[in-house]
Design a protein that fits this description.
Layout: H1 2-11, H2 15-40, H3 44-63, H4 70-88, H5 95-116, H6 123-132, H7 142-161, H8 163-171, H9 173-178, H10 183-205, H11 212-224, H12 228-253, H13 257-278
């Protein structure tokens, strides 16, 4: 045990590990806070679809050899988030069909671009690291750390100022609209913020696994708590603890960061599921 703590102390003496831990905490916080509302509104498909879109956007940024890929990936993902939301409400095109078209199309186009215009000798490795995460979380700059903190502050302010309206839109959108509330505006804002969280989460768990940070904490919290506030608070705590634990395990054991964090989330969900049956 002493050796373990000594090893952890050695790792945290490095600045890049501290950066990784800070960003992991804030990404987990943002994803879980959004996740409760998205899951309750059955909007979790947006997170899954945007994770595929983000891969396609990264492929385009790679082909263009952009130094800061977020400048292209973020607006593309945000635009697609609004597009998925708006077209998903169209009676002629069901939401599941829209998400299938955009997500599968993004993956196909992204891989095609990376294959045709590849500038790397290890295309398979680049694709795998983009989809499932890599060591990018351990190479973060101070700017990316500050961006994660800024996004967390924006989400906290958003949920604090509009908590009651988000609550109303989440549980009874028709009633909220009937009372004069602009539900469409709040849905659009949620979709846009979700897109930004997905882009940040790609550094942590990769594009395909990023939606897991949104879904698992919310589902785990719902096994144990019934109130919206209780589910939200526990979801945040659950997500942050699992993310930090998964990151530490990955650093010590040398396992893939993204897959390790999601696996810890799965184990945590199973524990909460069993406790929910017993309690």
């Amino acid at each position: 045990m002493d050796n373990l703590f000594s090893q952890l102390a050695l790792y945290f003496s490095h600045e890049f590990v501290v950066y990784a831990l800070i960003v992991s905490v804030f990404i987990a916080f943002c994803a879980s806070l959004l996740g409760v509302t998205l899951v309750l509104k059955r909007f979790s498909f947006i997170g899954d679809g945007l994770s595929h879109v983000a891969f396609g956007a990264v492929a385009i940024a790679s082909v263009m050899q952009l130094t800061n890929q977020a400048l292209l990936v973020t607006p593309i993902t945000v635009i697609c988030a609004v597009l998925i939301l708006k077209t998903g409400q169209n009676a002629k095109i069901r939401g599941d069909a829209v998400i299938a078209m955009i997500s599968v199309g993004s993956l196909a186009v992204g891989y095609l671009l990376m294959n045709v215009f590849s500038t790397s000798a290890n295309l398979a490795g680049d694709v795998c690291s983009t989809l499932f995460g890599s060591t990018a979380i351990l190479t973060l700059s101070l700017t990316e750390v500050l961006l994660s903190i800024a996004l967390a502050v924006v989400i906290i302010v958003f949920f604090t100022l509009f908590y009651h309206k988000i609550f109303a839109v989440t549980f009874d959108e028709n009633f909220a609209v009937a009372t004069g509330m602009r539900a469409g505006v709040y849905n659009t804002l949620l979709a846009m913020i979700t897109a930004m969280v997905i882009v940040l989460a790609m550094n942590l768990v990769g594009s395909l696994l990023s939606s897991a940070l949104i879904v698992f904490p919310a589902l785990a919290a719902m096994r144990l708590f019934k109130s919206f506030r209780g589910v939200t608070i526990f979801s945040v705590v659950f997500s942050v603890v699992c993310c930090v634990l998964g990151l530490l395990i990955a650093i010590i054991a040398g396992t893939p960061v993204g897959a390790t964090i999601v696996t810890v989330d799965i184990v945590g969900f199973l524990v909460c599921f069993v406790l929910g049956l017993v309690l």
